[in-house]
Design brief:
heterodimer; A: about 400 residues; alpha/beta; seven-stranded mixed sheet; four-stranded antiparallel sheet; B: about 140 residues; alpha+beta; three-stranded antiparallel sheet; 6 helices; 3 strands
């Protein structure tokens, strides 16, 4: 067993060897290195053929037509293109957008930028389980609302939003619906037509493809218009200029093809591992799952170990690679904004660890992780004055702390 | 974030972890910080008749640097008089542990903890007990 054990698959995934093999054949003189926009020779034609085959594989995973796929540098660019592109195009129709406080920064920051440009954005509070309440969303839609952006699967807590219901509501109200599917594509079934999704952001590196490539699905029927954010040559039907990275497109296509064929079986295998880990950890007292456990992607386990501070726990867990909801990198400690939005108190937000399990995780690694976490949490609790007070029956919420 | 060897040593082998009886008149207890801020330190000192700190114990909820700062502090205060212990500055702790700027607040918290523990001991012995003053 190699250490450290990688349990941060929501941050990024290793490239699947099948993807790497295929991708590498589109780089050198011996391979198809051409520019897909070159129309005058076979190098260009072969590159174009490869890019279009990959586009079809990406489209197939989400039930789209290949013509509806626009290549981007990743999900961040896709989110920017969808949100700013749609807002700019439809600004004469209205200047109001709706999103949720637990969205990724790649959605929240473009919204902030639009606010600086004179748009108005409603940031919905999720319920305490991390899910968006449909009634609250419906109530937030106004005559001048042009776009709703709600992510499919949350990157921190892994909860799956009911995008089909949100899509139906948006369609009924005549509002565009964008969803960030960086964490869901290849893990949860997506059908852009059945779910009434107008714009969908995709990433390759979260699903065993290479970093630096993603795509935006842009609906054609009924036609959704966006204003380009990058100009220069009119590639991708004018929506995103720039020479296509053939090898990256091919890598993403292959990753999506594999996902389409294997996601059902893989998801089940990963769910068993996740439940095995959770089963071993929940035997400890004062352990809390963050986010809904039923509406949740298979590989995610985000839990708070009360009375243990997250950064010291990560330090103790140096044999496993996980991430913490506590970002203790500045003098003022900032716990995860996602956990805060769920109404978690600061202590629990500071105590959270995100385990994300993936294609190459083994049972042996999960068992090692469970043993290690239990041992280190117990050790840190022996060190914790809060644990001591809790055991003495002190109500910590009633203590007058000297804030600093 | 890279931790210094000394922080790692104190974090992995913390010295003097534990608790004394808060009610014992020879014990001074200092509890500083807040859970919402991500660190809480409890430092206890056991003071003898000569006003010398005979023993010290701590418990800390916080990052590795906070744990190391309080562990180091318990080593330093043992054998010191209350006046000497009160002279310990956060900069000495930060320097000894090579804390980066973002972790300086951990050493500040440790200095606050020993001051609070001394104040608690002195408030217990205040009025008729001049042993602490003799130190």
């Amino acid at each position: 067993m190699k250490r450290p054990i990688y349990l941060d698959y929501s941050a990024t995934t290793p490239v699947d060897p099948r993807v790497a093999d295929k991708l590498c054949s589109y780089l050198t003189m011996d391979g198809d290195f051409g520019n897909a926009a070159s129309r005058s020779h076979t190098f260009g034609w072969r590159a174009e053929q490869a890019v279009e085959a990959a586009r079809a594989d990406v489209a197939a995973l989400i039930g789209a037509d290949p013509k509806e796929i626009v290549w981007t540098s990743g999900a961040t660019e896709a989110n920017n293109l969808a949100i700013k592109g749609a807002a700019h195009f439809y600004s004469k129709k209205g200047k109001h957008l709706i999103t949720c406080k637990t969205e990724h920064k790649a959605v929240l920051d473009p919204c902030r930028q639009l606010e600086r440009e004179g748009f108005e954005v409603t940031y919905l509070d999720p319920e305490s389980n991390g899910l968006v309440d449909l009634g609250k969303l419906a109530a937030a839609i106004r005559p001048d609302t042009i776009l709703v952006s709600i992510m499919h699967v949350n990157n921190e807590i892994g909860v799956i939003q009911d995008v089909a219901a949100i899509g139906a509501l948006c369609r009924e109200k005549g509002v565009l619906f964008h969803s960030d599917a960086a964490q869901s594509a290849g893990k949860v079934p997506i059908d852009v037509n059945g779910m009434n999704i107008d714009l969908l952001s995709l990433s390759a590196h979260k699903i065993y493809g290479p970093k630096g490539i993603g795509a935006l699905y842009v609906r054609r029927k009924p036609r959704v218009r966006i204003e380009a954010q990058i100009h220069g040559g009119g590639h991708e039907r004018g929506m995103r200029s720039g020479t296509l990275a053939t090898h990256q497109c091919v890598g993403m296509g292959e990753a999506y093809r594999i996902a389409r064929e294997e996601m059902a079986a893989e998801g089940e295998r990963i769910r068993v591992l996740r439940d095995r880990l959770f089963g071993a950890l929940k035997e400890m007292p004062e352990v809390y799952v963050n986010g809904d456990l039923d509406h949740r992607v298979a590989g995610n386990l985000n839990i708070s170990f009360n009375f243990v501070e997250g950064e010291s726990l990560i330090m103790a867990l140096k044999d496993i690679a996980v991430s913490s909801g506590s970002a203790c990198t500045s003098a003022s400690l900032e716990p995860s904004y996602v956990l805060r939005a769920l109404g978690r108190n600061d202590e629990l937000a500071h105590s959270s660890i995100r385990f994300t399990i993936g294609r190459f995780t083994t049972t042996e690694e999960i068992d090692f992780t469970a043993r290690l976490v239990r041992e280190k949490v117990n050790k840190l609790r022996e060190l914790s004055p809060l644990w001591e007070m809790y055991q003495e029956g002190v109500d910590l919420s009633k203590v007058q702390w000297a804030a600093h | 974030m890279a931790y210094s060897d000394k922080v790692l040593d104190h974090y992995e082998n913390p010295r003097n972890v534990g608790s004394f009886d808060k009610g014992d008149p020879s014990i001074g207890t200092g509890m500083v910080g807040a859970p919402a801020c991500g660190d809480v330190m409890k430092l206890q000192i056991k003071v003898n008749d000569q006003g010398v700190i005979e023993d010290a114990k701590f418990k800390t909820y916080g990052c590795g640097s906070a744990i190391a700062s309080s562990s180091l502090l318990t080593e330093w205060v043992k054998g010191k008089t209350l006046n000497e212990a009160a002279q310990i500055k956060n900069t000495q702790i930060a320097e000894e542990l090579a804390l980066p700027p973002v972790k300086i607040h951990c050493s500040v918290l440790a200095e606050d903890a020993i001051k609070a523990a001394i104040a608690d001991y002195q408030s217990k012995t205040a009025g008729g007990d001049d042993k602490a003053d003799a130190a």
